[in-house]
Structure formats: C-alpha cells, structure tokens
Amino acid sequence: MIIGVPKEIKNNENRVALTPAGAKELVKRGHIVYIQHTAGDGSGFSDDEYVSAGAQILPTIEDTYAIAEMIMKVKEPIEPEYGLIKEDQLLFTYFHFASHEPLTKAMIDSKSVCLAYETVEAPDRSLPLLVPMSEVAGRMSVQKGANYLEKPLKGRGILLGGVPGVLPAKVLILGGGVVGTQAAWMAAGLGADVTIMDVSLPRMRYLEDVMPANVNTMMSNEYNIRDMIKDADLIIGAVLIPGAKAPHLITRDMLKDMKPGTVLVDVAVDQGGCIETCKPTTHENPTFIIDDVVHYCVANMPGAVPYTSTLALTNATLPYAIQLADKGWKQACNDNENLKPGLNIIQGEIVYKAVADAFDLPFALVDKYLMDLD
Question: Transmembrane residues, as ranges (predicted)?
Fold first, then answer.
C-alpha cells in the first residue's frame, strides 16, 4: 500500500502521525511510505531520519494526498485539505466528527473512507488509540491549570500545592476516566486537594483504592457540581462519550457561583466540551475570560509536547496501521473487531450512529461494506 503522511497545518500542531521507526516497520513489509517535507520537524524528526528508515520525501501537501492510498494524520483535516482528499482514499486520524458538522459534510462529499482513532474500541470498551493522547492531555491539564492560576495570567494567585501553613488549591475533576485519572495523579502529586466526580460507583471504588489520600471521589450530578464549584480553584472537564458530543455539566449560569480567577480547563472541547462557555482555542491564544473565570480550551493540547505525544501516538496506532496496510481497510476491519467501530464515514455514508445522531443525518450499517470483500 502507498501511505502518505502530510505535515499538520492546524494552528501550532507540531505532532506527526508516524515516527521514522514506524515508517521503517511499514517499509519492511513492502509498503511505500511518503512523508511531506519537514512533516516531522516539529516533533524532532528530520527528513534525513525518514529517508534512512526507507521512506521517501515529497515537497508539498498536494503531492502527498495525490499519491497516497492511505493518509495517516494526527488531527482532522481542515478546510484547505478538503479538496485534496480523493474518493475511496483511506484517512486514518482523529476526527471528532460529532462536534464539527462542516468537517462531517466535507468528508461525506469526498466519498473517502474515514477511520477515526478516537472510536477504535476494544472489547472492554476502552479506546486504545485515544488513551495515549488522553494520558498526555490529562497530565497537561493540571500543568496548564496551575500556570493559569497565577495572578499575571488572571488566575486567583494560588500555588496548587500550597506551602506549610497555607492550604493547597482545590481541584475539581469532572470524569474519572483516563483523562481524569491522569489529571488526579498530577494534581495530587503537586499537593492539591483533589475531588474526582463520576457517575460510576465501580469506577469510584477503584479510584478510592489506587489514589493517594489527598484525592476524594464524589457522585457526579447537578446538585453536587453546583455545590463543589463554589470552592474550586481549578476545574478540569474530563468527560467523554465515545464518538458523541460531550454533555454540558457546567452551564453558563454556574459561572456566577465561582470565585473570580477560577480556572476552567476543558479537555473535552474537541468533542464539543463539557463546559457550556468553552469554545476551541489554540496554543497561540489559549485562554479567554468570562465573568472573571479563566477558560483554557485548547483543542489539541498534546500538540504542545509533540516529541512525547508523537512517540506515544505511534506506539498505539502502528499495529493498526500495519493491519490496514497489509490487508486493506475492509479485510482489516472484518478481521479485527477493535478497528471496526473506528469506521465513521464510508464513501459518502455515515456508519457511526453517534455522528449521524449529532446532526440528524442518515445512518448506514457498516457491515454492508465489510461483507463485500474484494
């Protein structure tokens, strides 16, 4: 198979979809790998490293899309890329369709095959290609939140861990999944007073067992959230419904109950956000303020640490990319039940129900495509 890796063009997105080591593994299996010139520079991988691994370098993004049967990316295509995508071309990347109708309609019109990292799902309901970036984003949410609590950045002027004789900051985490768990570990390690809210009692029992003493759990419901936000210094939104839009757990009217300088970090913003007032921001302009509350809503947080993120992402995606390249997408998805739910749009039809429901668009069963094996 011919695989193309374009340079990411989203604002301050420095990750790349494939490391030189990953390229070498695909080339060893007889596949042709094309890397756009300087695609790896932001992550610390030079063109020469890719060439040494057996990949070939193409000068432009147009050349990369034009030649490839499978495009491997990190972030969803943005508008300048829509016209480059070919019919029947396989795109393997993060899409987060449910929060972006123009992207959804553009991919329908392209008649390409869209296989989303974030909905590849294991039998235990875990999301193996979302986990590594969720781990990075969860840890970064605390790092960024602690930074924006500083007074020059319009925060409350609180040190997350406090000092002897001064109480630490109160951190409220909405969601006890991968993001929430990683955020809690980081915040607890810095000495904060941490509360994780979730709707699953089994999950909270697990967290009570593994978390340090300065982490508490609490049932997530509107009454409890409204009560907890009054004293919270840093609130982290870490809610995920696979493939669907995140629910708004913090609404516009709740901001008035927060202390001036409270910091909100919405890690779910690329799925629509679980904080109503959050809208996607960029690393260039990461925050905005509403009612004296600081909102940090960068949709590609791991892009700020691209070396770590690229290695973590390739570790997870490469086994699946190899299967797709070796077998073609139909056979690979038919053989691997994990890959099958990753299919979101196929040749103009939405085959992932949560995406169709988000925009009230027609839905087709994915099996009709997988039964028709070439």
Answer: none
